[in-house]
Design goal:
The structure is a single chain. The protein has 413 residues and is of the alpha+beta class. It folds into 4 domains: 2-74; 77-162, no CATH class; 169-252, no CATH class; 283-412, 2-Layer Sandwich (Alpha-Beta Plaits), CATH 3.30.70. It has helices at 2-19, 51-61, 77-90, 102-109, 120-137, 144-154, 157-162, 169-177, 184-189, 195-203, 210-218, 224-227, 236-246, 298-314, 347-367, 398-405; strands at residues 31-35, 40-46, 70-74, 247-248, 251-252, 285-291, 335-342, 372-377, 380-381, 384-385, 389-390. The strands form 4 sheets. Strands 7-6-8-9 form a 4-stranded antiparallel beta sheet, with helices on one face. The longest helix has 21 residues, at 347-367. The termini are far apart.
Length: 413
């Protein structure tokens, strides 16, 4: 009788193997195993379907044979590494770094059939973790305890670097600045730093490389079409040209989040007629203002009117916002000049507009040299130079302007 049941169970195990496609699975078939100490039969397999799936299939195929049957799904080394990676990454935002345990990985994957990497990054991290243990112990097997211990000790950033996975701009910057900015969550959990913090870090870093500058530019709403959302690695040659735009005498100049007026003001020129889906979510505005205790003289008012008129006459685009000086009746008690210009959404027009507006603001400042001036994009100041006035090095760079102009309008979406 016992031999008859053994035959039926082994036949049922073969049926399940075929039903779930395990004959083609690299971890093999469902096996019917007898335990003399437990006096029970167990269906055992690696990865593959979940226990509830196999149990239901048994009841459907041969209910009588499944009576008293036990089920045991084990996880392969790759599945354990996959679960460890997912648990570690998903723990971002917690106050304490979690310590992985094999039981936690079992619980995570208990209801997931055929656990496999969902992304190229997961696949690369799994390979790197397993390979590290194989190499360290000179064998082709990694135990669950070893996988957990390895990630608990070193975190994931080391393996991400070793496997050569492509990093997003925020990850490139975090990988470089995490240690100096006390951000251990990157080392262990691949949790990136805030974009604002990273942009400031590049701005304050006199040795920032072309790759770091390129990554910082990709985080800026003013240059979305250059690098963001492209699914490609930043181009160092492009970064070297961009370097001239963002690196000034007082360190890096990098515009931050847009917080100024969002719409076109009265008197401004019409907005671009691109379809909405091609436009970035936000843009950056350039702000300029002058303060002093004494009001404008008639000569100074005439100078302002002359500069504005000359600017409007020579402005290169009829459908972009240019120099816009606010009505002084709405100004504060010490504010003698104030205005702003919304930067174009078309990346090819960005540099010419910046250059044209800054040249005009330079003329305004020279006409009122005793005022206290501020020119900025949000909270980041454009530096003043007595010889050049307001300028961003590289804003007249013909190569950079040509490259920006070559970016398709639809690429910004």
């Amino acid at each position: 009788m016992a031999s008859d049941r053994a035959t039926r169970l082994r036949r049922l195990a073969r049926t399940l193997t075929e039903r779930f496609g395990l004959a083609l699975h690299r971890h093999g078939a469902v096996e019917a195993e007898w335990s003399g100490s437990a006096r029970a039969w167990t269906f055992a397999w690696t990865d593959g379907p979940t226990v509830p799936q196999v149990r239901a299939a048994c009841r459907e195929a041969e209910p009588a044979a499944g009576e008293g049957l036990r089920y045991a799904r084990t996880l392969s080394q790759d599945a354990v590494a996959l679960g460890a990676v997912r648990l570690t990454v998903s723990s971002t935002g917690t106050s304490r770094r979690p310590l992985l345990r094999p039981a936690d990985i079992e619980a995570l994957l208990r209801d997931e059939p055929f656990p496999m990497p969902r992304t190229d990054r997961e696949r690369a991290l799994v390979y790197a973790v397993v390979y590290e243990i194989h190499d360290a112990h000179h064998r082709n097997q990694a135990r669950a305890e070893e996988i957990c211990g390895l990630i608990n000790q070193y975190g994931l950033a080391m393996f991400l670097r070793r496997c050569g996975a492509e990093l997003s701009p925020v990850e490139i910057l975090t990988a470089h600045y995490a240690a100096t900015h006390a951000h251990p969550a990157w080392r262990y959990q691949l949790a990136p730093m805030d974009a604002d913090v990273l942009v400031r870090a590049v701005r304050e870093d006199p040795r920032a490389s072309a790759e770091l500058i390129t990554a910082a530019l990709a985080l800026l709403p003013g240059l979305p079409a250059l690098f963001a959302g492209r699914g490609r690695t930043p181009d160092p040659s492009r970064a070297r040209r961009a370097d001239g735009v963002v690196r000034g005498r007082q360190g890096l100049f990098l515009p931050g989040r847009a917080s100024g007026p969002g719409g076109v003001r009265p008197g401004a020129r019409p907005a671009l007629s691109h379809p909405p889906h091609t436009l970035p979510a936000m843009s950056v505005s350039l702000y300029y203002s002058a303060h002093r205790t004494t009001p404008l003289t008639e000569a100074e008012s005439a100078s302002i009117a002359r500069v504005v008129a000359a600017h409007m006459a020579s402005f290169p685009y009829s459908d972009e916002e240019s120099l816009y000086v606010y009505d002084r009746r709405a100004a504060g008690p010490r504010e003698i000049v104030a205005g702003s210009t919304k930067m174009p959404l078309d990346p090819g027009r960005l540099m010419p507009v910046i250059a044209h507006v800054l040249d005009s603001v330079t003329e305004l400042r020279r006409a009122m040299p005793d005022a206290e001036w501020r020119v900025h994009m949000d909270d980041l100041d454009v530096p003043w130079d007595e010889a050049e006035g307001y300028a961003l090095p590289g804003m007249r760079d013909a190569d950079l302007i040509a490259e920006l102009a070559a970016v398709p309008d639809g690429a910004a979406g």
